[in-house]
Amino acid sequence: MRTLLLSSIAAAVCGLLAQHASSRPSIVFCPGKQVSGSFSAVPGSAGAGNIVYALRLKNHGASACTLTGLPVVSLRGRYGKKLPTNVRSAHPGQATAMLVTLEPGRSATATARFSPDVPGPGEGHTGPCEPTAYRLVVTPNGGGSTSVLIRPRTPVCEHGRLSFSVYTAS
C-alpha cells in the first residue's frame, strides 16, 4: 500500500514538472529583418581621445524576440566596403549571457567606446587613422542582419576597436 502511494505521488509530481517545463515560453532570438536602429554619439561623451556611441535596436515585428551578449557588428565605408572592426567587451567576464526580450515596439541599447582620432600601432600618424565609417551592419542572434547609419560618421581607430557593453532594455 505504501509503495503504491509513493508511486502515485511520484507520478503526479513528474506529470506536473513535465507540464510546467512544456508550458515555459521558448526563446526566439531577433532576426535582422525584425529590428532597425541607430548608432549615434552620446552627447557630452567625447574626451581624452575617446567617444561613446549608443547602438539602439528596436523590435518592429509583430512578436517578441530576444537579444543577448555583445553586439556582432561590421563597420562599413561610404560605398559599403567592409572596414576593420574589432569588438571587445567593455566589461570582460560580466553578464555577457544576459537575455533582453523585446516586445513589439520596444528597444535595447548597447554602448561602444572607441577612439576616433588617436592612431593605434600600425596605423598612419598623418591624416585619419582609419577610413570614415558611414554604416554599422548588425547581426543579431536570430540571424540575418540590419544596417544602421552612424551619426555622425567617424573613423574608428585602433583597427576598428569598439569596446561594447552588453545589450540592456531601453
List keywords for this structure.
single chain; 170 residues; alpha+beta; Immunoglobulin-like
- Inertia-based shape: globular
Roughly how many Å apart are the termini? 58 Å
CATH class call: Mainly Beta
The number of domains is 1
SS content category: alpha+beta
Uncertain regions: pLDDT < 50 for 5+ in a row? 1-22
Residue-averaged pLDDT, rounded? Answer: 87
- Beta strand %: 35-45%
Computed over alpha carbons, the radius of gyration is 22 Å
Largest pleated sheet: 9 strands, mixed
Q: Total strand count, please?
A: 11
Under CATH, the topology can be stated as: Immunoglobulin-like
CATH H-level superfamily title: Immunoglobulins
Element pattern in H and E: HEEEEEEEEEHEE
CATH architectural designation: Sandwich
- Helical fraction equals 10-25%
